[in-house]
Amino acid sequence: MESTTEPMEHRTVPTAPTPVSTVPTEQPTPIEYIRSPRAETYLTQDGTREWIPYCVEDKKPREGMVFKTLEKAIEFYKEYAVICGFDVRSATVYKNSKGIIQKYYLCSREGILESEGNYDEKGKRRRKRNSKRVGCKARIIWNLINEDGEYKVTKFFEPHNHCLASPTSMPYLRSSRKMTMVHKNFVNNNTRMNIGPTKSFRLFKENVGSYDNVGATMKDFMNFHRDLQEHIKGDDAKMLIENFIRKRDVFNGFYFDYALDEHDHVSHLFWADATSRKNYSLFGEMISFDCTYDSNTYSMVLAPFTGVDHHKSCITFGVGLLSKEDAQSFEWLFRTFLNAMGNCEPRYLITDQDPAMKVAINEVFVNTRHRLCLWHIMKKVPEKVGPELKQDEDFLKLLNECVWDMEQESEEFEATWNSLMVQYNLVENGWFQHMFSIREHWIPCYFRDLRLGGILRTTSRSESENSFFNNFTNPHVTLVEFYMRFESAMDAQRHKQDKLNTESIHSVPQFITPLPLEKHAAEVYTRKMFYMFQDEVYKACFRCGISSIRMEENIEIAQVMDHSRQKTN
C-alpha cells in the first residue's frame, strides 16, 4: 500500500448549531443565524465561524452512499461543490495491488501557505501572491468496498471555515470554468486571423452577451493559447511537413519541397497549391519577389511570389520560408519555384536590391528580365539624405514626381534628376550616384515598353502587398500558427477574386461614348480593366487631337496633341 500524502485530521459535524455566549451575561445569548443565498453560518463552541452550504438532498453526499466507480463518486462531489460555491482538489490516495482502496477529496482552501519572505535566496524581491488557503477542513473520503470496484463514502465533513462563493463570484471558481471545444475552436480560429487570446476573450464575451455567460476567464484563454504553443513547440516543423505530405497525397495539384541543414532543421521550404499554380499559368508573366517579412519565432523570412490578376489585384503564386538570405538559399528557392511551375520562367521579375538575390537570379533565370522595385528604393531615401532633407516635404515631392512619371522621356528624367541633385547638394552623395548609374533597372520611363501589370505605377500596390502579408506575419508565432494564418489570408484573397469575377460577369458598366469599341471592351474586360480602358478612350476622344499627318518612306506619321505635351506616334 502506498500513500502520496498523510491523511488530514478531521472532526465530526455537529448535527445542529450549539448556542454559545459571545458576550459575558448571566444567561447564554442565542446564536444569531446569518443566512445567505448559499450557506448558513454559525459560531462553534471554540468561537470560530463555520458555513454549511445549502443544497438539495439528492445532490448532497452522505456517509454510507455507494457509487459504482470512483470516477462517478468524484464527479458527484464536484457537482455538489459547484452547486454550493467552492472548489475542490484531489488529495491523499491509498493503493494496493487491486488499485485505489481509499481516496480523499478536499476543499481547495485546505491548508496554510507558508510565508516565503519578501526576497528569495538571490536577494531578488518576490512577486506578491495572494493565497486562498485558510485551513478549511471540508472533505470527503471514499473506500473500496468490494471486488466490483464500488466505493462508499466513509467520511463526509460538510462545514467550511470560509464564506462560499456568491452568485457574482461563481464564474471565477475553477470548477465553474471550463475551456470547452467551443472556446478552444474560437481561440484557434482567431489565431488564424492574428487575434490573440486577450482579444478573443473580449470577442467571445460580446458573442454570448456577458462575462457570466463566457464560462471561462481571460486567464483560461491565455493559458490554453500558451499550452497550445507549448505542445507545438519543437515539433511544429515536423507537424507542418506531415501536413504538406497529407495534402499532396489528397490533392494532386499541391506542390511542396524542403531542405534540411546540418542539424536536421528545416532551412528551406516552399509550397504552392493547385489554385496558385493555375493562377501562375494565367497571370505569371510578371512576378514580384519580396523577402522582407519576419514570419515566425525561428526568424525564418517569408518570401512570397506575387503577381497581378485581371482585376489589378495582387495574387500569390507560391511561398517560401528561408532561414538564411544568401545566394545559395535564393538559388534553391528560385529553382524549386520553377520546378513547381513546369520550368516556365516569368518574363519579368521585380525584386529589391539584395545583392545575394541578384546573384541567384542571374544563375537561375535565363530569359527573365530583372527590374528593381521602385517602392522599396524610395523607402530608403529618408535614411540616405540626412535629418534635414528627410523632413523637407518639397524635396520629397519633387523627387517622387521625378522618378514616378512614366510619361516623361529618359532625357527629361535625367535633366530633372540632375537639377534636383544640384539644387539640394546631393551631387556627391554616393547612394544617389549609384542609383543614377543603374537607373535603367528601376526608373519606369526606361521600360515603358515592358508589360509589368502596373506593379510600378504607384506606391499603393506595393503598400497593399506589404500590408496584406504583414497582417498575418508575426515574429513570435510557430510555423504551424503561421501556416494557419497564411491559409486564412489566402482564403480572403481568393474570396475577393471570386467576388470581383462575379461582379464583372453579372453587371453592366456605364458608357460615356456611343463607340462600339467601348461596348466590346465591356464584354471582354473585367470591370477594373474596362474602366481603365474607358479612361483612355475618354482622353483620346476629348483631350487629344491630330495636329498634322505626313508620309515618310511609306509610313504615315501623325502628330498628336495632348494638352501642352507633344508626342510622335
From TrEMBL:
One Pfam assignment: FAR1
Domain FAR1: 75-164
Region ranges (Disordered): 1-28
Domain MULE transposase: residue ranges: 287-380
Composition-biased stretches (Low complexity): 13-25
This protein's name: Protein FAR1-RELATED SEQUENCE 5-like
Record organism: Spinacia oleracea
Lineage of producing organism: Eukaryota, Viridiplantae, Streptophyta, Embryophyta, Tracheophyta
